[in-house]
From TrEMBL, chain A:
Cofactor(s) for this UniProt protein: FAD
Protein name (record): Alkylation response protein AidB-like acyl-CoA dehydrogenase
Pfam families: Acyl-CoA_dh_1 (PF00441), Acyl-CoA_dh_N (PF02771)
Keyword Aminoacyl-tRNA synthetase on entry: no
Domain Acyl-CoA dehydrogenase/oxidase C-terminal: 196-320
Residue ranges that the Swiss-Prot or TrEMBL entry lists as coiled coil: none
Domain of life per record: Bacteria
Domain Acyl-CoA dehydrogenase/oxidase N-terminal positions: 6-118
GO molecular-function term, one example from the UniProt record: flavin adenine dinucleotide binding
UniProtKB/TrEMBL annotation, chain B:
GO MF annotation terms: flavin adenine dinucleotide binding; oxidoreductase activity, acting on the CH-CH group of donors
Pfam families: Acyl-CoA_dh_1, Acyl-CoA_dh_M, Acyl-CoA_dh_N
Residue ranges annotated for the Acyl-CoA dehydrogenase/oxidase C-terminal domain, each copy included: 228-372
Cofactor (UniProt): FAD
UniProt domain Acyl-CoA dehydrogenase/oxidase N-terminal: residue ranges: 7-118
Taxonomy, superkingdom: Bacteria
Natural source organism: Conexibacter arvalis
CC per GO annotation: plasma membrane
Oxidoreductase keyword on record: yes
Keywords: FAD, Flavoprotein, Oxidoreductase
InterPro entries documented for this protein: Acyl-CoA_Oxase/DH_mid-dom, Acyl-CoA_Oxase/DH_mid-dom_sf, AcylCo_DH-like_C, AcylCo_DH/oxidase_C, AcylCoA_DH/ox_N, AcylCoA_DH/ox_N_sf, AcylCoA_DH/oxidase_NM_dom_sf, Mycobact_Acyl-CoA_DH
Domain Acyl-CoA oxidase/dehydrogenase middle: from-to ranges: 122-211
Protein name from the UniProt record: Alkylation response protein AidB-like acyl-CoA dehydrogenase
Protein family: Belongs to the acyl-CoA dehydrogenase family.
Amino acid sequence: MHFDFTDDQREIRRTARELLAARSGFERVRAVAERDDGAYDEALWRELVELGWAGIALPEAVGGQGLGVLELAILLEELGYAVTPSPIFSNAAAGLLIDAAGSDAQREALLPGIASGEQTATVALARDGVAELVPDGDSARWIVLVEEGRAIVCDALAGGLEIAPRATIDPTRRYARVAVGPGALSLELERDVAAGLDRAEVALAAELCGLAERALVLTVAYVKERRQFGTPVGAFQAVSHRAAEMLLETEGARSATWFAAWAADAEPASLARGASLAKAAASDAGRHVTAAAIQLHGGIGFTWEADVHWLYKRAQVDAALLVPAARHRARVARLAVAAAAAPAAAGAAVA
Amino acid sequence: MDLTFSPQATAFRDELRAWIDTHHPGAAPEGEEASFAWRVAWQRALAADGWAAVHWPPEHGGRGATLVESAIFNEELARARVPQPANVLGLLLGGPTLMVHGSEEQKERFLSPIVTAEEIWCQGFSEPDAGSDLAALKTRAVKVDGGWRVTGQKVWTSYAHHAKWCMLVARSEPDSARHKGLTYFLMDMEQAEVVVRPLRQITGSAEFNELFLEEAWIPDENVVGGVGNGWRVALTTLMNERAGLAFGLQVALRALLDELTEVAAARGLLASESVAERLGDLHVRCELLRLTAYRGLTATMKYGQPGPEGSLTKWMWSDTNQRVSELAVELLGPGALATDSRWSFELLRARGNSIEGGTTEILKNIVAERVLGLPRLR
């Protein structure tokens, strides 16, 4: 039992933290967010692709790095920490889903472009063939739509799709509304869609953890500096206790997300529960902690000038993507009932 | 990261499970006296086969269990719904404190009867005016020939009416300030100068006591860690308090939640999305607690001692335990508040969770100051 990162995993985190601090600081995030077309920094994207990040968790056979969901989660936590405007998340989430749910032929056809970043993909839930908000839906080559347990992959170049860019409260990422028209070309993924979707949820949870962590770090630094009544406001318990609650939620969400990512790689039988724990906890943490960050920054936190709002906005949208937290909670309860009915597990893992 | 247990830890769990299966003491008898005697018998059974003090080194009657094995021990006890050994304070707090700060003579004299439950221990720290602010304690120890005379009042003393020895912190330098001038003693409870009065709680039962000390006698050889060094010795005890019970508590919490989930499922309540969501929310909280506790264990193995993060899991535990009984009452209706329902007791008992062993407010202070590095207001 070792519930911590290996040296290699720590190295991934360190590399990502340093690179993103240098190349995706808040001034760069702001520059993208304030552009009318919301276009990402092309040079940064090329750099991330050259580092192999686009296909970090995809098999080497399709051009990926052959690392695990856990390594991807570490990376996405850092991308969340930096609120980096980039299609890495949407492409990785769709890649995980296709890798788990696609047939061999489908994987061979789709994954190499996703791993190399040359033909990116994205994923969203749809109802009656319409997905209201698809991250990077206007730039992805492949759009995976999940509806009632089925997943179809649509080719954005083949026509028949209505793709309309859609501005949201989160200007740090591009979104589109996607509707499948009568002439659209699509293929249905043939294997385990649920397991694929769970992996995508873990990726999303990881980004939410990073957003929460950054919100906490900014807030702690601010309340140590900001003085009122002749003392740093962080000395007041009304403030320090709320900061402690931010830590509690952030660390709880990270525990669940790392567990789920580990389960995706090493213990698939625990993935369903793990993914639901992760998404439920990270959605709450992401929304609550970034909201608390605005509150504890006081008036300045409500200004466009301060940077905490980027975190709050991204977290709001992340929490709303894929399956909502409430359904994950209900699923955890029903899994517990099912587990109680099954013979006692051997207790072979922390899971 | 590897969340599987080692073959050794798994073997430990299997052996313990098999042992509990054949030695299960059954349900607790009615009445406080009978129930305590039953727990003493249970501890003797554990001790006879080397299971009473698994985390102690072999030379003192333990198994030298690793931290993971100790966690497994507490999990398995809770899973099998068997009680903690009767002398839990001696095993978790007193013994480990003596192993760090005690003299060879003290270890020789005191450790073995802790394991066999021949001598039960209690803890005399809190006072009416020194609760969260322990350093404000006033009980005074006056030096006399060959020992000390101690006068004062202690409160929230579990097991005092069964105990032979009390881990007592008292002010040994008159008018000393706060953390200074304190000494850690082992006080014999069997003397007329120590009066124990049960303290009735909001549940109606009396798990705790008040202690009234009127020139109680403590010989010099029962000073632990040196005169004036009481604060440091007491911190060792307190650190063990928060670390030791965590795994048992979270499994007991999970068992309680499973029971509620079973009842709710049997009544068909899980067909409702909102009920499933609210129960699921508690399952999520339980799992976050368990996973965070294991993360903390990994950190403890790395750094050699539990960090202030342990405050997070105690806080998560008390918060979630309170939510479980509240939701039970809400889902199961007014019958859950009748005293023949276990939920009525759980509801009331849970109010103490966020007070005992460090109030949630103090835990938030610890997290804010020692984990986040925020300034403190003084």
